[in-house]
Structure formats: structure tokens, C-alpha cells
Specification:
365 residues; mainly alpha; Dna Ligase, domain 1; 3 domains; 6 strands
């Protein structure tokens, strides 16, 4: 009996010893992986440029670097920053990171002020065409090279999957923000920088929400772009979204002046009847449903409005004299609101029956 107990204890001791060895091997292996990455980052593309916004700290930067596949161990990155005294010294601007750089190298670059770069401001609601003009005027991009890079299919972002064929494929996805473009950055990398900014802003919950709504990401961004061009009021965005969704559900045409302005290439304050009859897949007066794609690059507020519209019974809106929109449930109410703002407006009563007379004025929707 005593021998059995001794053997049992010996067996347990061996198991514990084996487990300890396994744990030590795992710890050493993990440590080696961490040490390797912290000493020399490795990216499939060889290099990447990220934008650090004013006010972002090491924790936010570590998250971005991890999302971009640059830093595999953000906790270790933050620890090295803390121990090295880098916290609180992050400088805004672009950060060009290359394979072989250590976490410390990245942190040193991160706290370096006045990195050689050109500041470019891309306002919310800019079209790709306007973005190209801004970059070319600043002398940091060539028009032909920029558009050639736009048609490159090498940008492997989730939100770009299954986009329909169209001339401006990236319309809607070059995220509006302030960028610090490093000297000598190529057009492909500038575009990737803006797509990366979109990727960082478009959260996982947004993909889930779009799926719940039965919509593609492209449809959400298309709706957001229309909202962006229809109102600049924080208080109105979600309600404007609710109006357009009401029209879609009821089988009405969206009839957005902004989509026609996109076709025209200019923001005419008043659309002519001929404008609303242009044969284009972006003309929502002529064709039902969504236009072929986004009509501008919307900001996050309009994207959230498209994802979380206000529940409203309104189907129409017109801009009032105070700059705010007047929302109406019925077409008769809408006509009354129009005429209160402009008594000279005449309405074709026969058009009320088919709800196509909203093109009588560019100020009405």
C-alpha cells in the first residue's frame, strides 16, 4: 500500500513537472514573438502611412497601429511608451512606418514635431473630383496618376468588396479629414491613407447595423452622401434620412436635387425641368431606388444618420427662409410650406397625383 501511494505521488509530480515545462516553453515562445515584433515590425506591404489626429494619445495610436497590422502587441507598445517617457508627447501628423522599425523607432517618430509634410484639408461632402483638385493644386499629386491609382484593385478593405462597376468607384470612401501628406508620397499611398481613415471610422457595429437594415455598406454610404449634400444641420440629418427611407419604402422616387447636381457637376441653386430629366443612373428624379453610388464623401455624422434614421411620418421637406427645413407629411402640406416661403411658386395640380412636381423648384425636396 505504501509503495502505491509513493508511485502515485511520483506520477503526479511528473505531470506537474511536464506542465511546468510546457508553460515555460509557451512563455518563452510568446516572449520571443513579442520581442521579435517589438524589435522589428513586419507588414505585407513593406510600409504604411497612418494619420495621427491632434489630441490622440499613445493608447489611440497603439489601437490604430494594431488595426493596420503594424503593431501586433499594442499592450507591449504602450508599456514601452510608458517606460520610455513617450506618453503625453504625441505629435499630430502622418507617420510613415517601414518594415524593420522597432516599437521604439515608431515612438521616436511619433513624438517628432514638424515632420516634413503638407497639410491637406478635405471637407465633408467633397467629391473625389474636388479631392483630386485639392491635391493637384497643392502640388502633391498628378491628376492622371491619381485617377489611375483610384482604379487600382489592390486596396483590400472590407467596405470596398462587391462594389458595382462605375466611373468613380471610390466616391464616398476617401474619408474627409485633415491629413499631413509626407513629402514624396505617391498617389496610391495617399488614396490608401484616406481609405485607411475610413476603415478606422467605420466600426464593426456599423457593418452589423447595415446588415440588420438589409442594406449594403455601399447603399449606406450612398444615403449618407445624399444627406451630406441636403443638409448641414446636426439637428436635421437623421430626420432627412427618415424622409428618404420613407420614400424608398413607399415606392416613391428619392427625388434628391443633390443627385442631379452631381450629374451636372455643379450645385445649381435651382434646377430646371430639363435638369431633372437627364438620363443618368444618378438621377433620382428619373430612376427609382438608390443612385448608382455615393455622390460625395460623407462625414461620420451623416453615416450615423443613414444607419440610425429618425422615425418620422414626413415624406417631404423644403428649406425655409431661416435656413432650416420644413418637413411635411402630405404633398398638400408640402406645397403650402413652399408657397409660404415663396408666394410666386405656381404648382401644376395634375403633377400632385403622381408626386413628380418636386422639380418645380431646386429649393424643395
Amino acid at each position: 500500500m505504501a509503495v502505491t501511494i509513493k508511485e502515485s505521488k511520483l506520477g503526479k509530480g511528473r505531470v506537474i513537472a511536464v506542465l511546468v515545462v510546457i508553460c515555460l516553453v509557451a512563455i518563452v515562445a510568446f516572449g520571443a514573438i513579442v520581442l521579435k515584433d517589438s524589435a522589428s515590425v513586419s507588414m505585407a506591404d513593406g510600409e504604411k502611412t497612418i494619420t495621427i489626429s491632434d489630441g490622440e494619445g499613445v493608447s489611440e495610436v497603439a489601437r490604430i497601429l494594431n488595426n493596420e497590422g503594424i503593431v501586433k502587441n499594442p499592450v507591449v507598445f504602450r508599456i514601452i511608451s510608458k517606460l520610455g517617457g513617450y506618453d503625453g508627447n504625441v505629435q499630430p501628423g502622418n507617420l510613415k512606418i517601414e518594415n524593420g522599425m522597432s516599437y521604439k523607432d515608431i515612438l521616436e517618430l511619433l513624438i517628432t514635431p514638424n515632420r516634413a509634410a503638407t497639410k491637406i484639408i478635405i471637407p465633408e461632402g467633397y467629391e473625389v473630383r474636388q479631392i483630386a483638385e485639392t491635391l493637384c493644386e497643392a502640388g502633391i499629386a498628378d491628376w492622371n496618376d491619381f485617377y489611375a491609382a483610384l482604379n487600382n484593385d489592390e486596396y483590400g478593405y472590407r467596405f470596398l468588396e462587391n462594389l458595382p462597376e462605375r466611373e468613380n468607384k471610390m466616391e464616398g470612401y476617401l474619408f474627409p479629414a485633415t491629413y499631413e501628406i509626407p513629402e514624396g508620397m505617391e498617389e496610391h499611398d495617399i488614396i490608401d491613407l484616406m481609405l485607411s481613415a475610413f476603415n478606422n471610422q467605420f466600426k464593426d457595429e456599423y457593418y452589423k447595423r447595415a446588415e440588420e437594415m438589409g442594406m449594403s455598406v455601399d447603399e449606406i454610404i450612398t444615403m449618407a452622401s445624399i444627406i451630406e449634400r441636403e443638409t448641414d444641420s446636426d439637428a436635421e440629418r437623421a430626420k432627412v434620412a427618415g424622409v428618404f427611407y420613407n420614400r424608398l419604402r413607399s415606392g416613391m422616387k428619392l427625388q434628391s436635387c443633390a443627385t442631379v447636381q452631381y450629374v451636372l457637376g455643379e450645385r445649381k441653386p435651382v434646377l430646371a425641368i430639363a435638369d431633372t430629366q437627364i438620363d443618368s443612373p444618378y438621377n433620382t428624379y428619373k430612376y427609382a431606388g438608390f443612385p448608382l453610388g455615393p455622390i460625395c464623401c460623407p462625414g461620420i455624422a451623416c453615416i450615423e444618420a443613414a444607419l440610425y434614421p429618425e422615425d418620422t411620418d414626413a415624406y417631404y421637406f423644403v428649406q425655409g427662409n431661416n435656413g432650416q427645413h420644413i418637413f411635411s407629411k402630405t404633398y398638400d402640406e408640402h406645397i403650402k410650406a413652399m408657397q409660404e416661403n415663396d408666394p410666386t411658386i405656381s404648382v401644376d395640380k395634375t403633377a400632385i397625383e403622381n408626386q413628380d412636381s418636386m422639380q418645380n423648384t431646386g429649393a424643395t425636396q
